[in-house]
């Protein structure tokens, strides 16, 4: 029996409760990510924050950078806005994984925060509070409430191919990409907010600002699993290596 491609899904460490336990630090990720990877034919493995090394990538066929708290603004050279809520441990662990994944040409999908981390890793920056830029709260209407808005994609891009026929996506974020760094912008909301980024020089590096794991047809997750299958059977060719992203900015 052919082994399913193993997809690492980055996780949070947050206070959680179950049974008689309350406010216990827990490694967790919404099950929707696992469900989407499984439905696409993959095996999801949850990856807690860990910046000691990235050796686990040797066991993976693909990496999914999940949504969550804000990326620390010190990583793109800005002071923190009072409304920014970062998780330094998660930033450090995910940057280590992402740097190694890019070096190994491992397929990578960034979702929401994950797309923003991709932009920062490629030398870009973020808007720390999107309503200040676009003048509305449509991308995060209320706590725990997803928004919905039109979207368009660049013809011929990976995002455009993956999302062919889709003209509306969900939304839950208060930050957004200001500068994509070395990535190509290939998707936009109707108000101009960046909705998709990619590196066309690599096998599969795609970021999406929405949450495909919560869609009935989670196409970007399916595309990641398919890219992981393809990587097994088609090793990288002898052509020139893609340009590596600039290292993220770090404090101190």
TrEMBL record:
Any GO MF annotation of the entry: transferase activity
GO biological process: polyamine catabolic process
Official protein name in the record: Putative glutamine amidotransferase
Coiled coil: none
PROSITE patterns, A to Z: GATASE_TYPE_1
PANTHER family xrefs: GLUTAMINE AMIDOTRANSFERASE PB2B2.05-RELATED
Organism annotation: Micromonospora sediminicola
Gene Ontology CC terms, in alphabetical order: cytosol
Keyword Transferase: yes
